[in-house]
Amino acid sequence: MAFSFEVHTTAEGGGRRGRLTLPHGVVETPVFMPVGTAASVKAVPQSLLEEVGAGGKGAQIILANTYHLYLRPGHELVRRMGGVHRFMSWERPMLTDSGGFQVFSLSKLRKVTADGVEFRSHLDGSKHFFSPEHSMDVQIALGANIAMVFDECVETPASWERTRESMGLTHAWARRSKDHFELHKHRVPWSQAAGDEFEGKTQSLFGIVQGGMYADLRKESAERLVEMNLPGYAIGGLAVGEPREVTREMISRTLEFLPKDKPRYVMGVGYPDEIEEYAKMGVDMMDCVLPTRAGRHGLLFTSEGRLNIKKLEYAEDQGPIDAKCGCMVCRRYTRAYLRHLFSSGEPLAGTLNSVHNLAFYLDTMDRVRDELANATTHANL
Ligand SMILES: [Zn+2]
Question: Which end of the chain is more exposed for a tag (fewer CB within 10 A), N or C?
Answer without folding.
Answer: N
